[in-house]
Specification:
106 residues; mainly beta
Length: 106
């Protein structure tokens, strides 16, 4: 049997264990300390009418350093429960939002 060089691999399958889900969405609120609200949109076909419908859901995510700003496109990953509603953590800022009304240096 070939020796498995991956330390993360499981002995039974030789593959890496399946990680939690990842989602990409837009930050809609940063009013709480170390918490952001991310709205994830997806397009699905209506079960009866087969018309494409846009569905949205909000997720509370942990942002330890407070890096995410309102309007940013971010990637969140599944995490152990941190509070009653918070089960996601900020993984990366995909695209920073343009901050309107920011102080300009002249």
């Amino acid at each position: 049997m070939p020796e498995n060089t991956n330390p993360q691999a499981t002995p039974a399958t030789g593959k890496e264990p399946k990680r939690g889900q990842e989602k990409i969405g837009q930050v809609v609120s940063t009013k709480m300390q170390k918490t952001i609200v991310v709205e994830v949109s997806r397009r699905v076909a209506h079960p009866l009418y087969r018309r494409i419908v846009k569905k949205r859901k909000k997720f509370y995510a942990h942002d330890e350093q407070g890096l995410a700003k309102l309007g940013d496109l971010v990637k969140i990953v599944e995490h152990r429960p941190l509070s009653k509603l918070k089960r996601w953590a900020l993984a990366d800022i995909v695209r920073a939002a343009v901050q309107v009304g920011a102080a300009k240096k002249q």
